[in-house]
Amino acid sequence: MKERLHFYYTNDLHSHFENWASIVDFLNKKKEKHRQDKEHYWIVDIGDHVDRFHPISEAFRGKRNVELLNDVGYNIATIGNNEGITLEYYDLFHLYDAATFKVVCGNLTARNERQPVWLKDHYTFQSETGIKITVLGLTAPFTPFYRPLGWDVEPPYEYLRRELPKVEQDSDIIILLSHLGLSDDEMIARDFPSIDVIIGGHSHHLLKNEKSINQSILTAAGRYGHFVGEVDLLWDHNQNKLIEKHAYAMETSHMKKDLETEKKLEHLNKEAEIVLQQPVTVLKQRLEVNWFLNTIIIQQLTDHLQKWTDADIAMLNAGLLLDHLEKGPVTKRDIHRICPHPINPCTVKLRGIELLEVIRGAYDQALITLELKGFGFRGKVIGKFVFSGLDIEIMTDEDGIEHVKNVYYQGEEIAEERIYTFATADMFTFGRMFPQISRSKTKQFFLPEFLRDLLIDLLKN
């Protein structure tokens, strides 16, 4: 006898609810079909369903995201870094208290002795015919962020080396929900051939069809709900093994939308607007925002960042603020609207010679006009860089391009070997925008505050 097993998945929705009703309609139709055909199916999420750029996730700290997963009938989920490091300790600790699905994340533990009731190392279950399926979950090990928030996150390889042999003995099929990224998934498939399926996320990669490495197949459905994934497995009871493994990612743009879900999202949006109408301050004048100019508000926010972190120097990019603030009452909703990024303040230690390279790089027009996606940035372009604690002499060439001529700190030229404490947005500790910052071995992240919390503090005072 041969038996088909079906898994459906989402990954990296990032609270892009504009695609959620299409995903729900697709899943509901699949569920009904499998019920009629009497086939087994499970629905899983690979993390980063929550993203606090959206008012619903901001107002309810992700709990309405969990409610939406409950509504569809998800069976299992793992957590992504947006659940893990953009929520305060108790918000994450209680995030899944009302979940009707299992949450598996083997490499995450609370640093106190008590663990969340929902957090499972792995989940093993049986189909009605007795096939034993084990689902593991792993999240990206962003230790410098997790530890200040009260969590420990173990390197994924250490976890797998220790725990995988234990589950191999009592599993017919092993599935990994991996919020680690494609390169890690590929290495895991090479090094741990007992894993049958790796459903991936985190790096927002799209695999429209399965990718085979050793005994494993890899699959992932991009980001923002533009795709929804399916894994089909065929088990041969006579041979007592899997004989087929396939995976697909289907585009959602052409799919119908579930009307009940659309109504619920509309209702949740209204609820979120009410929650976020908490007053912050009253402005006596309009505060202008311009991504390519040094405006009052971005300069004052940079100054405030320098003081708040007790740094020598601070740098922010004008693209962090998306819109103006009008004269009159300002609410938390207004602040969230103009600064939606889940980005934390941070400091790094830089030698003077490294600091000069950062400052020169900040005048690169290609970087200023870069349309960045990722690293927590939810804006359009990077924008002009603004500094606090420095005097910078600029020369403008015949093409109108600005270049750094001299840089002074407290009236003296930057000393190349002196160590300076440099405050900025944590997004610059990732990637290649500023190699000197990303390579620094002395980073301090300020959590759980986002930059918008500093903006609120600035406006209140």
Automatic annotation (TrEMBL):
MF terms (GO), sorted A to Z: 5'-nucleotidase activity; nucleotide binding; UDP-sugar diphosphatase activity
Keyword set includes Cytoplasm: no
Alphabetical keyword list: Hydrolase, Nucleotide-binding, Signal
GO biological process, one term: nucleotide catabolic process
5'-Nucleotidase C-terminal domain span: 294-427
Keyword Flavoprotein: no
Residue span(s) of domain Calcineurin-like phosphoesterase: 7-205
A Pfam family of this chain: 5_nucleotid_C
Gene3D superfamilies with a match to the protein in the record: 3.60.21.10, 5'-Nucleotidase, C-terminal domain
CC terms in the record's Gene Ontology section: outer membrane-bounded periplasmic space
Domain of life: Bacteria
InterPro entries according to UniProt: 5'-Nucleotdase_C, 5'-Nucleotdase_C_sf, 5_nucleotidase/apyrase, Calcineurin-like_PHP, Metallo-depent_PP-like, Pesterase_YunD
SUPFAM superfamilies (alphabetical): 5'-nucleotidase (syn. UDP-sugar hydrolase), C-terminal domain (SSF55816), Metallo-dependent phosphatases (SSF56300)
Family: Belongs to the 5'-nucleotidase family.
Name of the molecule in the record: Bifunctional metallophosphatase/5'-nucleotidase
Organism this protein belongs to: Gracilibacillus dipsosauri
